[in-house]
Amino acid sequence: MSLKRAITTLCILLPAVAAAQSSSLNTFSPYTLYGVGDIASQGSVESKGMGGAGFGFRSATTINSLNPASYSAFSRKSFLFNVGLEGTNYYLKGSNSIETDDGIIRKSSYNTFNINNISLGFPLAQGVGFSIGLTPYSDVGYRLSRKEESPEILSSIGQVTYSFLGSGGLNQIKAGLGFSLGKGVSLGAEAIYYMGEIDRQYYVTVQPLLSSGQWYSVNSSNYSDISSISALFGVQWDAISSRSELLTFGATYQMGGKLNADNYRYIPSQNISSDTVALSKLNFAFNMPTSIGFGVHYANEKWMFAGDYQFRNWGSANPTSEVPNIKYVNSSSLRLGAQYTPNRMDFRHMFNRWSYRAGFRYEQYYMQIGGVKMADRALSLGLGIPAKASGLTSVNLGLEIGQRGKLQTGLFRTNYFRFSIGLSLFGEDGWFVQHKYD
To answer: How many CB atoms lie under 10 A from the CB of residue 307?
Structure first.
């Protein structure tokens, strides 16, 4: 496959992948009722197997979308293509919002499976690399219902059910450039285009029981078509660079800004004499945060260690909320990981060439609900399997076991199991060579 043909294929796939991710529930969480939804973990399957760390990681054979400065490490005459799939099992447990003596507990579960990442990268010159790709940024997904329990409502109106449905999210198209300044220093810049749709629906269904009055069911739809532009800047410095050891420090800065959105609220009626109660265009007053991150990466012939810290000013960017009991707050995250490869050059024993990964991630949630702060904690495991004995193409597997939220009145606790699979194609292995003879 030639370079031109590969780029054409990617350009065709990007809109299709974006449409597929917007057409189904990519997450399942009641907390996505607000804001832009759950923020998706970034990076390749390799980095997710190490807790998601990667600000300091740079490789000639891997696309590291966490820091565009790493693109300068692409080796000459190479061509890299990554694609990832991700499936998640969600298990929710929550106390009901009304305190009772028997402590009623409500449970739910949901499974998702989606394309998680697609990207390609290649060198433009010695020490200069380019990458383009598509990856999700946030996901909205929930299906909730509650029945009215007030005796007065039941006797005067009837059985009233409140239902909440939400889907969609934001995707990001990235195009970045990394270049080496010499003396182990590399810089990078990446343009980011956010696009997506968020649809939140609210239903009130009335079934008269004892009342003789006439009541109508009402539903409301809040639809947002969102787009925005941002930029990510990165720097990396090789403090130690030799054939046996590599120690790299990295840092990133991402610009914030207002999300551009066409937001519509539509309220139809079941009354025959009127089709529409209200149709209005609203202001989507939500800002993306500025973020800053720092990372360190160390590697030798067998071991690799990485650690990241990131800060996002969600609260400063959004001092007010559309809901009184919801407050956006600044968030920090810590990601740590390690990788062990027994012997990359052992062609007789296959398992010695495999890479074994483990990591930990702790991240504060960007919303405070009812005055309660929440955090996301996860342990991760990963496996890198070379596709050929003498090649650099690999299949990567990842497993993340995490928990978010608290089990108390009005809140939910979510346990999740996330499985990832990624295919990393390296051009010098012959995947993108155009043969002269058939």
So the answer is: 21
Cα torsion through 40, 253, 172, 366, rounded to 10: 40
Asked if 141 and 26 touch (Cβ cutoff 8 Å), the reply is yes
Residue listed under structure tokens 């639809």: 223
The token pair that represents 394 in the structure block: 């690999």
Q: Which tokens hold the place of 342?
A: 């027994």
- For the residues of 149-211, what is the DSSP string, one character each? --HHHHHHT-EEEEEEEEEEEEEEEEEEEEEEEETTEEEEEEEEEEEEEEEEEEEEEEE-SS-
Contact present, 369 and 31 (Cβ < 8 Å) = yes
Q: Which residues contact 7 (CB under 8 A, 6 or more apart)?
A: 120
Q: How many residues does the chain have?
A: 438
Could you tell me the pTM of the whole model?
0.85
Phi, psi of 15 (to 5 degrees): -65, -35
* Alpha-helix residue ranges (DSSP H) falling in 201-349: 314-317
Q: What is the pLDDT along the chain (438 residues), one digit of tens a residue?
A: 444 444 444 444 444 444 444 446 788 888 888 889 999 989 999 999 999 999 999 988 889 999 999 999 998 878 899 999 999 999 888 765 433 333 444 677 888 888 888 999 999 999 999 999 999 999 999 887 777 767 776 666 777 888 889 999 999 999 999 999 989 999 999 999 999 999 988 888 777 766 555 666 677 788 888 989 999 999 999 999 998 999 999 999 999 988 888 888 777 655 544 455 556 666 667 899 999 999 999 999 999 999 999 999 999 998 887 777 889 999 999 999 999 999 988 888 889 999 999 999 999 999 988 888 889 999 999 999 998 766 678 999 999 999 998 777 667 888 999 999 998 887 664 444 555 555
CATH topology of domain 3-429: Porin (2.40.160)
Closest residue by Cα to residue 42 from 287, 248, 335, 330? 335
Question: 285 by DSSP, 3-state: which?
Answer: coil
- Give the H or E element holding residue 316: helix 314-317
Instruction: Tell me the two tokens of residue 274.
Output: 């009127």
Distances (CA, A) of 355 to 88, 105, 249: 23, 42, 22
C-beta separation of 177 from 191 below 8 A: no
Closest CA to 204 of 244, 162, 164, 246: 162
Every domain of the chain and the residues it spans: 3-429
Query: In which residue are the tokens 């076991």 written?
Result: 401
